Amino acid sequence: QLQLVESGGGLVQPGGSLRLSCTSSKFILDSEYIGWFRQAPGKAREGVSVISNSDYRTYYADSVKGRFTISRDNAKNTIDLQMNGLQLEDTAVYYCAAGRPPLGLSEAGYLDSRLFASWGQGTQVTVSS
User: What pLDDT is attached to residue 1?
Assistant: First the structure.
């Protein structure tokens, strides 16, 4: 199990912003795809965004495109998820995960949580007025 630690969750009003960080080692970030996933109460875990390890290619769920941005901070060894325009339905526990998905998948394919073997403990994001 690879070490991944999430931070940055909290309570925000609709339309607000939060920035989540997934901290790991440079070795892990260089060798694994890192993804952000979320799970709301009573719902299945869903992929939010994934970034590749070599060329930093990014993939997004349709529900967050244009609002969320995934990026890598090499100085801090983090994968960050900038979340803007937050909506009530974004409320969930957000997890980061590491994996090695096969090449050539569709965008939706890279967001499949079954392709990611190592998971952090999660951070709560609550959007409420």
Answer: 72
